[in-house]
Design a protein that fits this description.
Chain lengths: ~450, ~350
């Protein structure tokens, strides 16, 4: 007797398909029209744009190794957008900013960006954070012609207009930053032994590339890299100490700057630290240092340990309270972000948000996706950054310069002039003496 | 006969999935492709645990092998996709054989421990040799939609077709294997190793074979997932993935193919659904990013409390007793306990 043993996979798949439909439905929406004149009615001119709102998306490390500090950036951008929305929006449309957690894991980045593009139909991906993470989605976004604007990473790779026409960097790229830091080290630490400590990916490698353009090879006694998934950096720090490095240049995320500092302390090793902007926010660092030390059963003063760290800044330093930009940041921070400290990450998010609004206003009343790309390719006026943007149709880098700063009592203090440079090995580093334009009184860029 | 039935069923499924992929939006197609990738890996693990009675916490590592193998083959040799999938499966199977033979003497928790080591250690190889494996950043996996489908064909639909086709083929083979003499032998040694050995079964060889097949499935799953996400990076193949596979296997229903499907659906849909819920309720910062993870945990605990035999077991209990016509078709790889049935199968 044969029992019923039919494999009714068909019924099964039917149920599976139905459960997918039930779990949600897809959103479509396409079609394009050219941007109209100032009196034309608002239309749904592109995916993510309706008569009343502009939907943009992002991937951010809200948990995991890169989260400390960086998880403040997207809320800060959102605070700026809320400020703009409360003051008339962009041609009357409100910006809706949906940022999803990718845990700084490239595979999750791929998943959440697919969700944002395919399910939510965002107009653009804005300020996607991280070099390894964003590299996972840049090809996809460009293939889909989704504007990929103001990536939150200084990788020079975003500047590939022929390969990735829809991708734009924003912050000072790591090559320029490496050159500016390297130039300072060359001038101020003559004859000293230099050691490198850097993240082993395009972030750290770009930084080292810039450093090597300025620091003579003979001065560099050790090159130690770390992997962000391996939190034990004692071997690297021991090697730096053994090589006798008197100055350690660190291209690291905040958590690893803190680890470097604590392990040096443990090994009674006290080189002069020179840290990349992304890994040197004093408030974030102090918090991490105290938290890590506490985990290890020790008590340290964060501000004491960050004292004297040399870094660079491309936004007005938070201590310069006379700056119109800092005043604007303080105003928005107090109203929309009272729970977060006003630190470098919050300033970063606010400034990047400002730049996005600059670009959106320039893209026109009823912009297509291409209109946004064209607007940035046409160049943007200098905004909250101390140096101008590089944007053109052949250059997708953002900020082009920075000043050297020293951490004193938990705050950045500018110590030198603003310097600008390019990304080429021979490119000169020049002082930029044009005064930074003041922030508009309304706090919103003019179209 | 069994093969024919499975083939006919698979054709039916293919038609339904094809229609669904056209009717559903691009993102559902993408999720369908994700589910297809996971279902192969989960089915392989389900076979290993549910049928042969061995435990592996390291199948994520075999997914990594399949993923990296396909990325490297596509990148350097530019092989056609179907060949790449087969090659990735074979490479993972070979790795599974090497490890399986080495671990053949290990039982229960000891085997689990050894596979755990694999899950922890293997991804760091990619970090140790960034020149070959691209380090932390991983390697890109790009595929193009074939030209004959036209320029406007949605790429995610092609992705869904591709992965579902591969998954269906793998599932047909697994369904047949489960019904074959080998499948029955696995059940025998799962239920009583000594009795199986006395009955003349080569226990060690059968166990290694199950391990190899589950590794091969994980390899294919890994290759499919690489194509779906467009990247292979070590961050994707951590211990978390291996545990997630195990979770999907157990929650879906051990030792059943439909269970593998339920588990994979859970794996793909629940986190993305919860993320959306957390985002739309305006939870702030740390809360909105932790809530999905916490709720996911609660869902898993609840499922295991309410349905100890997994989702498939619950469905079988709900429908199986009341109307066998519905329950029976759902039970691929049903447990065979009655002696007469064994005998009957042995003679067919």
């Amino acid at each position: 007797m044969k029992k019923v043993r039919r494999v009714n996979l068909a019924a099964l798949a039917g149920i599976a398909a139905v459960s997918m439909v039930v779990a949600g439905c897809s959103s479509g929406g396409s079609g394009s029209s050219s941007s109209g004149s100032s009196s034309s009615p608002l239309t749904a001119s592109a995916p993510g744009i309706t008569k009343t709102q502009i939907l943009i998306g992002s991937h951010q490390p809200l948990t995991g190794v890169a989260a400390p500090g960086y998880d403040e950036i997207a809320p800060a951008s959102n605070a700026y957008f809320q400020y703009v929305n409360a003051h008339g929006g962009i041609y009357g449309r409100k910006i809706v900013y949906k940022y999803l957690n990718d845990q700084y894991d490239p595979t999750i980045t791929s998943t959440v960006v697919h969700q944002l593009v395919l399910q939510d139909s965002v107009y653009a991906i804005y300020n996607g954070l991280g070099t390894p993470t964003h590299l996972a989605v840049a090809p996809y976004l460009n293939a889909q012609k989704v504007p990929d604007v103001f990536v939150a990473s200084g990788c020079e790779c975003w500047n590939s207009p022929s390969k990735w026409p829809d991708t734009f960097g924003w912050q000072l790229d790591y090559i320029r930053e490496g050159k500016i830091l390297g130039n300072y080290i060359k001038q101020h630490f003559k004859g000293k032994k230099i050691g490198y400590f850097y993240q082993d990916d395009e972030f750290g490698q770009d930084g080292v590339k810039g450093l090597d353009m300025e620091i003579p090879k003979s001065m560099v006694v050790a090159r130690e890299s770390y992997n962000p998934t391996v939190t034990n950096v004692a071997p690297q720090v021991t090697a730096l100490k053994a090589a006798g490095a008197q100055v350690v240049v660190s291209f690291s995320v905040p958590a690893f700057t803190a680890l470097l500092r604590l392990i040096s302390l443990k090994l009674s090793y006290s080189p002069q630290l020179v840290v990349s902007n992304v890994g040197s926010d004093p408030i974030t660092l102090a918090g991490l240092l105290e938290a890590f030390a506490k985990k290890g059963g020790a008590t340290v003063s964060g501000n004491q340990l960050t004292q004297g760290i040399i870094t660079d800044g491309y936004l007005p330093s938070l201590g310069s309270t006379s700056s119109s930009w800092i005043k604007l940041f303080q105003k928005i921070h107090a109203k929309y972000l009272p729970k977060l400290p006003l630190d470098g990450n919050v300033a970063y998010g606010l400034a990047a948000g400002y730049t996005f609004v600059q670009a959106m206003l320039k893209a026109g009343r009823n912009p297509t996706r291409q209109d946004l790309i064209n607007a940035i390719n046409g160049g943007l006026p200098q905004g909250p950054a101390v140096a101008p943007y590089a944007y053109s149709s052949t250059d997708h880098n953002g900020v082009t310069g920075a000043y050297i700063a020293v951490i004193k009592n938990g705050a950045l203090v500018q110590t030198g002039p603003i310097q600008v440079t390019d990304t080429s090995p021979g490119g000169a580093i020049t002082t930029y003496s044009t005064a930074q334009p003041a922030a508009p009184a309304s706090g919103i860029p003019s179209p | 006969m069994t093969l024919l039935r499975h083939l006919a069923a698979a054709v039916g499924v293919a038609v339904i999935l094809g229609v669904a992929s056209v009717m559903l939006g691009a993102y559902r197609d993408y999720q369908m492709a994700e589910v297809a990738a996971y279902v192969v890996a989960v089915a392989g693990l389900s076979l290993l645990i549910g049928l042969s009675g061995q435990i592996s916490i390291g199948n994520g590592a075999f997914m990594a092998i399949g993923g990296y193998a396909s990325a490297l083959l596509l990148l350097h040799l530019g092989w056609p996709l179907e060949v790449v999938f087969v090659a990735a499966t074979v490479i993972a199977a070979v790795a599974g054989a090497v490890f399986g033979i080495a671990a053949a003497r290990l039982r229960g928790p000891y085997l689990a421990g050894a596979t755990l080591m694999l899950a922890v250690a293997l991804p760091s190889i990619a970090i140790q040799y960034p020149g070959v494996f691209g380090g932390d950043q991983g390697l890109p996996v790009t595929i193009t939609t074939p030209a004959f489908l036209g320029a406007t064909f949605p790429p995610t639909r092609w992705l869904a077709w591709l992965t579902c086709a591969a998954a269906l083929i793998a599932l047909i083979l697994l369904a047949n294997l489960g019904h074959s003499r080998i499948g029955r032998s696995w059940r025998a040694l799962r239920d009583d190793e000594v009795a199986a050995a006395l009955a003349g079964l080569n226990v060690a060889r059968l166990q290694v074979l199950a391990f190899v097949i589950s590794a091969a499935c994980a390899g294919l799953g890994g290759a499919l997932l690489a194509v779906v996400s467009g990247i292979v990076a070590p961050g994707a193949y951590t211990l978390t993935l291996s545990i997630a596979l195990l979770t999907a296997t157990v929650v879906g229903g051990l030792g059943t193919l439909p269970g593998a499907l339920w588990g994979s659906l859970l794996l793909v849909l629940v986190p993305s659904y919860l993320t959306n819920v957390a985002a739309s309720h305006g939870l702030s910062g740390a809360a909105s990013s932790s809530v999905p993870i916490a709720v996911y945990g609660v869902v898993l605990i609840l499922v295991m409390l309410v349905f100890p035999t997994g989702i498939q077991g619950a469905l079988r209990r709900l429908f199986g007793s009341a109307s066998p016509a519905v329950g029976a078709p759902l039970s691929v790889w049903r447990r065979h306990t009655s002696a007469s049935e064994h005998q009957e199968e042995g003679t067919t």
